[in-house]
């Protein structure tokens, strides 16, 4: 007779399984959940099993960010932190850039990130010229879709007053018509991001060892916030190599799905790589394409103008977008298209519908990344097309009343529309888009539940509030569905991955305005404690 090894029993004051009623214990066998129930029943079923008493805590399934930028966050740690939390205003920002110039010496590139113009103030090339005239400087805005370069940087990038902007991008200009240093959309992406740059970036690359050190630090931080799984939302082959090296060294304790930039898709297909390729810790979720600009950068494509005018930008030509969606769909792969504004989302849905008509692929579900501004027609079409929404979870908490100023209170009632998605039967996943937003999933949960800014308390689209349980579902079962792993992640149930988070307070009974402050006592991935 073959005897099975007994599992390990975990008990807590409350276990929220997201698969049924609350309970108090579960059994972990290796990297999987074997059973869930009350302590007495599990003791009887598994006599002699070792027990781990988690005390007066609450256990939830592992939290899964379905759209975040791990590699970009890791590289960001190598550059100046110019976020609103790190600098008190433009003068402080410039002091930091100037100090870096004195440290690095003339000619060295200086890069800064997470600059928030709405909170810190406006910045131009001439401001940067004053404090670092002998260094090329690039400061990227927090949304990641535009940045400010100084004169030396523009020269090194080959951008002059008569340079034509790239398709899907713009060079910002001052009222007198001169370049003001802003690189907008493709004008920035072609310079900074390997996943979208044609022919490589124009900036000096960090060393592989530096990138690995940054990645290790980010993974630790994210585990401490309760993250067990993510989808890295834009990768190039060099990023995949970095993640593989991290896994080989034991640094990648986070489950990582990847959306491959559409610019590299043909090469990947030639190598036999498609959606689902990989393993439980590093796999391809699908392909990433772009339709418009950024919500926080105020460049997304809207059907009605911004409060201060303009409709935003379409960053990929319609013909090119339709062709990309059709190709990926025809090959049986998932595509996630970045579309913030309602005009862009309608365009993406048109592309999804055309692809399905021309090449039926039952069960193949595509994603709309961010999917920020919706209307009733969008909701109906998304349900019909089985499209998955991946909206920002924490943007209300981060931006607060600025969203009302930029988009108008009536429009914010249909932005980050978690309530509307759930009511319409549209699968909705949890997303931070960090470094563009706060990575902590409990901040996202509080934001979805209260719809109020963390800093100013401003109400933003209160009609879209959801319950705490629904918000947890967005970050667990919804995100698992978005990444194509709903049969193995997102719940504490027999056969599912033993990924779970131990919280110091039950979010279902906590003060909704204190959810973001609930302590993350421990985080487990594949049955192994990675934090706490």
UniProtKB/TrEMBL annotation:
Alphabetically ordered keywords of this record: Hydrolase, Metal-binding, Zinc
Record bears the keyword Metal-binding: yes
Domain of life: Bacteria
Enzyme class, UniProt record, top EC level: hydrolase
Gene Ontology MF, one: hydrolase activity
EC number: 3.5.-.-
Chain segments carrying region Disordered: 157-176
InterPro entries hit by this protein: Amidohydro_3 (IPR013108), Metal-dep_hydrolase_composite (IPR011059), Metal_Hydrolase (IPR032466), MQNX/HUTI_composite_N (IPR054418), YtcJ-like (IPR033932)
Every Aminodeoxyfutalosine deaminase/Imidazolonepropionase-like composite domain range: 25-49
Amidohydrolase domain boundaries: 50-531
Descriptive protein name: Amidohydrolase
Source organism per UniProt: Actinoallomurus acaciae
Lineage: Bacteria, Bacillati, Actinomycetota, Actinomycetes, Streptosporangiales
């Amino acid at each position: 007779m073959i005897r099975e090894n007994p599992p390990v029993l975990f008990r807590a004051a409350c276990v929220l399984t997201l698969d049924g009623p609350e309970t108090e214990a579960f059994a972990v066998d290796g990297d999987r959940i074997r059973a869930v129930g009350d302590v007495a029943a599990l003791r009887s079923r598994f006599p002699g099993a070792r027990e781990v008493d988690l005390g007066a805590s609450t256990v939830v399934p592992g939290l899964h960010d379905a759209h975040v930028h791990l590699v970009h966050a890791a590289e960001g740690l190598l550059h100046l932190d110019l976020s609103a939390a790190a600098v008190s205003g433009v003068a402080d920002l410039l002091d930091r850039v100037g100090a870096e110039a004195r440290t690095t010496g003339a000619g060295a590139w200086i890069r800064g990130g997470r600059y928030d113009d709405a909170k810190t103030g406006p910045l131009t090339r001439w401001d940067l010229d004053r404090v670092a005239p002998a260094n090329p400087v690039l400061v990227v805005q927090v949304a990641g879709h535009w940045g400010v370069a100084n004169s030396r940087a523009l020269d090194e990038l080959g951008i002059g007053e008569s340079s034509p902007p790239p398709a899907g991008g713009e060079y910002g200009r001052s009222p007198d018509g001169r370049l003001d240093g802003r690189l907008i959309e493709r004008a920035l992406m072609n310079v900074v991001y390997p996943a979208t740059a044609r022919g490589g970036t124009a900036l000096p690359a960090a060393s592989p060892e530096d990138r690995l050190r940054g990645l290790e630090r980010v993974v630790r931080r994210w585990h401490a916030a309760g993250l067990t799984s993510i989808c890295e939302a834009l990768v190039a082959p060099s990023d995949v190599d970095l993640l593989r090296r991290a896994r080989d060294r034991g640094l990648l304790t986070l489950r990582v799905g990847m959306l491959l930039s559409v610019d590299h898709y043909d090469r990947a297909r030639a190598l036999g790589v498609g959606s689902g390729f990989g393993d439980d810790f590093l796999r391809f979720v699908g392909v990433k394409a772009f339709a418009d600009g950024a919500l926080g950068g105020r460049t997304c494509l809207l059907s009605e103008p911004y409060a201060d005018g303009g409709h935003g930008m379409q960053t990929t030509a319609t013909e090119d977008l339709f062709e990309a969606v059709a190709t990926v769909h025809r090959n049986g792969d998932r595509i996630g298209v970045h579309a913030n504004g309602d005009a862009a989302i309608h365009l993406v849905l048109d592309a999804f519908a055309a692809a399905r008509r021309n090449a039926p692929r039952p069960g193949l579900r595509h994603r709309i990344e961010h999917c920020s501004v919706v209307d009733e027609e969008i909701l109906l079409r998304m349900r019909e097309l089985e499209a998955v929404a991946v909206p920002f979870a924490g943007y209300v908490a981060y931006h607060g009343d600025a969203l009302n100023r930029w988009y108008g209170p009536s429009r914010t009632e249909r932005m980050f529309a978690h309530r509307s998605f759930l009511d319409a039967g549209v699968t909705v996943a949890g997303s931070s888009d960090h470094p563009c937003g706060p990575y902590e999933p409990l901040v996202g949960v509080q934001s979805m539940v209260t719809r109020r800014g963390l800093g100013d308390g401003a109400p933003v689209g209160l009609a879209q509030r959801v319950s705490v349980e629904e918000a947890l579902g967005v970050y667990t079962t919804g995100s698992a569905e978005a990444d194509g792993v709903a049969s193995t992640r997102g719940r504490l149930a027999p056969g599912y991955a033993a990924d779970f988070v131990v919280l110091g307070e039950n979010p279902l009974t906590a003060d909704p305005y204190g959810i973001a402050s609930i302590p993350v006592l421990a985080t487990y991935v594949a049955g192994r404690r990675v934090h706490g």
